[in-house]
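TASK: fixed-backbone design
INPUT:
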C-alpha cells in the first residue's frame, strides 16, 4: 500500500482533508480520536526532497498501524495521527501474564492516555530499516532538517480540570488527583500528589518556625546581651574595611543585636532538631501515601522496564534487547568532568567573594556605617543572577554527560540526568551559603595583620552583630527572589508568550471555519513543552526543599515562605499545563523515582548543616560555655543576676590602636587607645587564646552529639512509621494468593481433561 506520490495533492481549499492512506478499517474519525499532530510549514511542500522524506516517515508509521488525516491553513500543514485499536490490543497482550488466566481481566488502564503514549513513543523513536544496517530518519532528524516543524498532543476533555483545578480561586481546594491521572498520566499525578502532601506538611513546620522566630521578640528588649550592647557607649570596635577610618561605638549595633536574637536563640536548636524529625516523618508518610495511591491505580507491581520493552516491540517487532553495560573509562571521564564542574561552581563562589571584597572597598567611601549590610544585600542579588545563568549551563552539561554515558532506556537516562543536574545545582545554589556560614570572617587574621586578597584588598568580615545576620540576610534574599520573582516569571512568561502567539496567528491568518482545524490551530498556538517540563518543576521543588531544611537554623521563616509559595505554585503549574501549554505526554509511574533518593540525601545534609550552623555560625555554644564555665554563675553560686552578665566584654578581644600602621590617620585616634573585635585572642601577642581552643572543642563535640541525636531520631521515626501500610501489603498478598489459586484450579482442570 503506497502513500500518494506528493502530499501537495492532499492540500486543497482551507478545511479540506483527506485520509493519507486507504485502510479497510479506516473510517472517518471524530476530532477527539486524533492524539498527536505533526506540523510542517507550507513552504516545505515546494521541496520535492522534503515531501519525499515526509512520505517515508509517514509510511513507517503506517506500517506500525496508525491512521492519518491531513489539514492545512494558510501557512501550516497539520498531520493528525491516531493508533489503531490493534496497537492497543498488542500493548495489552505484551504486558499480560499468559500463565495467569485472570490477568486479561486485570488489565485495567486508561486507553486514551495509553494510546497517546504509544503514538508519542513510536513517532520519536528510531527504527532500523528492514534488511539494512542503517537507521531510518527519526522525527528529531526531520525537525532539524526542516521537514517537520514540531509535534504536539491535543488537549481534549480538559474542561473539568480547567474548572476544578486550574483556577486561582481553588487555591485552598483539594486537588482532583484521579482526574489529573486520567488526563496527564500517573507521573504528573504523582508529582502533584507529592507537592500537595509537601505543602500540607509545611503547615506544622511553618507554625513552629514562626513561633521560634516570634519568641525572639521576648528577648528583643530583655536580653542581657542586647542590654549590654545597647549601653556599651565606652566600647569602640576596630574598623572593618580598608577605607574605614572611624572607630564605631558598640552601642551603634543595638538594633542589629536585637534583630539577631530573633533567630539566634535557644529555640534555634530545638527547631533544628524538630526539622530533622519533620523531614523524616514527611518522607515516611509520603512513602505510605504513595503506596496507597499506586495500589488504588493497580500499579503497585507494575514494571517500568517491561513497559519500555513493550513499546519498543510495538515500534519494531525486530527490536533487539539493549542490555545493561558499564564502562570504567566512561565513568572515569564523567567523574572528572563532574568534578571540574563542581570546582567551577566553587569558583563562582570565590568570584562572589571577590565581588564582596571589592564592593566593600567601594561602598566604604560613602556608606561608612552600613557597608557590611550593603555588601551582603548586593552580594545576594549577584548570587541570584549567577544561579539563573548557571542553571542553564548546568542543564546543558548534565545532558551532555548523560548522553556520553549512553543509558539503556529513557527512564535510566532520566535517572542519571537527575543525579548529575541536582549535584551541579546544589553547588550553584548553596556554595555561597556554605562560605558565609563556615568560612566568612574566620580566615581574616586580626586588626593590624589582616589577610588580603592578592595582597591588596582586605577580606570581608562578618557583620558586627555576628555571622548569623549575614547568613539570615543571604537566605532571605535568595529564597525570597526565587519564590517571588521566579514564580512571577514562571507564570507571566508563558502567559505573555501564549498571548503573543495567538495575536500573531490572528494577524497573519483568520481562524478556520472547520472546527477540527480550529482546534488543532488552538493547540498549536499554545506554548511548546519538552521532556524536561515536569523535570524542571521537580528540580525547582527540590531546591526549595533544600533551602527549607539545610540552613533552616539560620532562617526559621523558610518553611512559612515555602508554604505560601507552594500554594501559588500548585495552581500556577495547573494553569500552565491545562490552559497555556501543549499537553504533556502521559507517562506511567509508580513512584517519583530518583527524586526520593534526592529528598533523603537532603535530609541527611540538613542534619549535618544545621548542626554546624548552630555550632560554628551561631553564638549558641559560646553563650553556653560562658554561662556554665566562665560566667558569674559558676564562680558565685548565689549570683542572682543574669548568668550572661559581662558576656559581651568576655567575647570581644582587645587590640591596642598604637599597633595600627596608619594609626595617625584614624578619626578620633587621640581619644581611643583600645578597640575591640569579635574573636578569642590574647591581648599581648594577638595569638589565639586558650578560650578559643576550649570553645572549638565544645563546638566539635556539639556537632557530633547533635548529628548522632538527630540521626537516631530519624532512624527511630523511619522504623516507627512503616514505608508501606499493612492494608496495602495485605491487598498485594491477597492478589498473589488468588493468582496462585487460579493457576492451581486451571492446572487441575487441564489434568482432568
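OUTPUT:
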Amino acid at each position: 500500500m503506497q502513500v500518494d506520490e506528493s502530499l501537495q495533492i492532499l492540500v486543497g481549499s482551507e478545511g479540506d482533508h483527506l485520509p493519507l492512506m486507504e485502510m479497510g478499517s479506516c473510517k472517518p474519525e471524530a476530532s477527539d480520536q486524533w492524539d498527536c499532530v505533526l506540523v510542517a510549514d507550507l513552504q516545505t511542500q515546494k521541496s520535492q526532497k522534503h515531501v519525499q522524506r515526509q512520505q517515508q516517515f509517514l509510511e513507517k508509521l503506517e506500517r506500525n498501524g496508525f491512521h492519518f488525516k491531513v489539514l492545512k491553513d494558510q501557512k501550516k500543514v497539520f498531520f493528525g495521527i491516531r493508533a489503531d485499536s490493534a496497537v492497543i490490543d498488542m500493548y495489552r497482550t505484551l504486558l499480560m501474564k499468559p500463565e495467569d488466566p485472570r490477568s486479561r481481566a486485570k488489565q485495567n488502564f486508561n486507553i486514551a492516555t495509553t494510546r497517546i503514549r504509544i503514538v508519542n513513543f513510536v513517532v520519536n523513536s528510531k527504527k532500523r530499516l528492514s534488511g539494512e544496517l542503517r537507521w531510518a530518519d527519526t522525527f528529531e532528524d526531520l525537525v532539524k532538517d526542516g521537514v517537520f516543524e514540531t509535534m504536539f498532543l491535543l488537549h481534549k476533555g480538559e474542561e473539568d480540570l480547567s474548572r476544578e483545578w486550574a483556577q486561582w480561586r481553588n487555591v485552598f481546594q483539594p486537588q482532583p488527583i484521579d482526574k489529573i491521572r486520567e488526563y496527564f498520566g500517573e507521573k504528573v499525578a504523582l508529582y502533584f500528589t507529592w507537592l500537595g502532601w509537601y505543602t500540607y506538611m509545611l503547615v506544622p513546620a511553618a507554625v513552629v518556625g514562626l513561633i521560634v522566630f516570634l519568641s525572639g521578640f521576648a528577648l528583643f528588649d530583655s536580653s542581657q546581651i542586647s542590654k549590654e550592647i545597647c549601653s556599651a557607649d565606652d566600647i569602640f570596635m576596630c574598623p572593618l574595611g580598608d577605607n574605614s577610618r572611624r572607630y564605631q561605638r558598640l552601642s551603634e549595633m543595638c538594633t542589629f543585636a536585637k534583630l539577631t536574637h530573633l533567630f539566634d536563640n535557644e529555640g534555634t536548636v530545638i527547631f533544628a532538631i524538630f526539622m530533622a524529625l519533620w523531614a523524616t516523618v514527611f518522607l515516611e508518610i509520603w512513602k505510605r501515601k504513595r503506596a496507597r495511591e499506586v495500589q488504588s491505580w493497580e500499579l503497585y507491581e507494575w514494571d517500568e522496564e517491561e513497559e519500555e520493552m513493550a513499546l519498543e516491540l510495538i515500534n519494531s517487532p525486530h527490536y533487539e534487547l539493549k542490555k545493561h553495560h558499564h564502562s570504567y573509562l566512561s565513568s572515569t571521564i564523567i567523574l572528572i568532568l563532574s568534578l571540574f564542574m563542581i570546582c567551577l561552581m566553587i569558583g563562582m563562589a570565590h568570584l562572589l567573594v571577590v565581588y564582596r571584597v571589592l564592593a566593600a572597598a567601594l561602598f566604604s567611601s560613602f556608606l561608612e556605617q552600613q557597608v557590611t549590610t550593603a555588601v551582603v544585600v548586593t552580594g545576594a542579588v549577584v548570587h541570584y543572577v549567577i544561579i539563573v545563568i548557571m542553571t542553564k549551563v548546568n542543564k546543558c552539561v548534565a545532558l551532555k554527560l548523560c548522553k556520553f554515558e549512553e543509558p539503556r532506556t529513557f527512564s535510566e537516562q532520566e535517572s542519571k540526568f537527575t543525579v548529575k543536574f541536582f549535584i551541579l545545582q546544589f553547588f550553584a545554589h548553596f556554595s555561597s551559603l556554605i562560605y558565609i556560614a563556615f568560612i566568612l570572617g574566620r580566615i581574616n587574621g586580626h586588626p593590624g595583620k589582616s589577610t588580603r586578597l592578592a595582597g591588596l584588598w582586605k577580606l570581608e568580615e562578618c557583620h558586627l552583630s555576628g555571622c548569623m545576620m549575614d547568613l539570615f540576610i543571604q537566605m532571605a534574599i535568595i529564597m525570597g527572589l526565587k519564590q517571588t520573582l521566579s514564580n512571577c516569571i514562571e507564570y507571566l512568561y508563558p502567559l505573555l508568550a501564549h498571548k503573543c502567539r495567538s495575536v500573531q496567528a490572528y494577524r497573519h491568518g483568520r481562524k478556520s471555519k472547520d472546527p477540527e482545524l480550529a482546534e488543532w490551530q488552538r493547540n498549536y498556538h499554545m506554548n511548546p513543552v519538552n521532556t524536561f517540563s515536569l523535570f524542571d518543576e521537580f528540580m525547582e521543588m527540590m531546591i526549595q526543599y533544600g533551602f527549607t531544611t539545610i540552613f533552616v537554623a539560620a532562617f526559621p521563616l523558610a518553611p512559612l515562605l515555602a508554604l505560601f509559595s507552594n500554594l501559588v505554585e500548585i495552581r500556577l503549574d495547573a494553569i500552565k499545563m491545562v490552559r497555556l501549554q501543549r499537553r504533556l505526554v502521559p507517562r506511567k509511574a509508580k513512584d517519583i523515582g530518583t527524586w526520593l533518593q534526592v529528598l533523603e540525601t537532603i535530609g541527611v545534609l540538613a542534619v549535618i548543616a544545621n548542626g554546624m550552623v548552630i555550632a560554628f555560625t551561631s553564638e549558641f555554644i559560646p553563650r553556653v560555655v560562658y554561662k556554665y564555665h566562665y560566667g558569674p554563675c559558676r564562680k558565685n553560686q548565689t549570683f542572682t543576676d543574669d548568668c550572661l552578665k559581662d558576656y559581651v566584654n568576655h567575647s570581644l578581644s582587645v587590640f591596642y590602636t598604637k599597633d595600627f600602621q596608619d594609626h595617625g590617620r584614624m578619626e578620633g585616634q587621640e581619644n581611643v587607645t583600645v578597640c575591640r573585635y569579635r574573636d578569642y585572642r590574647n591581648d599581648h601577642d594577638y595569638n589565639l587564646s586558650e578560650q578559643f581552643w576550649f570553645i572549638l572543642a565544645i563546638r566539635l563535640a556539639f556537632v557530633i552529639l547533635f548529628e548522632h541525636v538527630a540521626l537516631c531520631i530519624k532512624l527511630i521515626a523511619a522504623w516507627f512509621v512503616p514505608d508501606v501500610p499493612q492494608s496495602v501489603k495485605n491487598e498485594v498478598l491477597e492478589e498473589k494468593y488468588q493468582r496462585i489459586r487460579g493457576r492451581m484450579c486451571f492446572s487441575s482442570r487441564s489434568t482432568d481433561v
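COMMENT: Residues 1-32, 101-106 have pLDDT under 50 and may be disordered.
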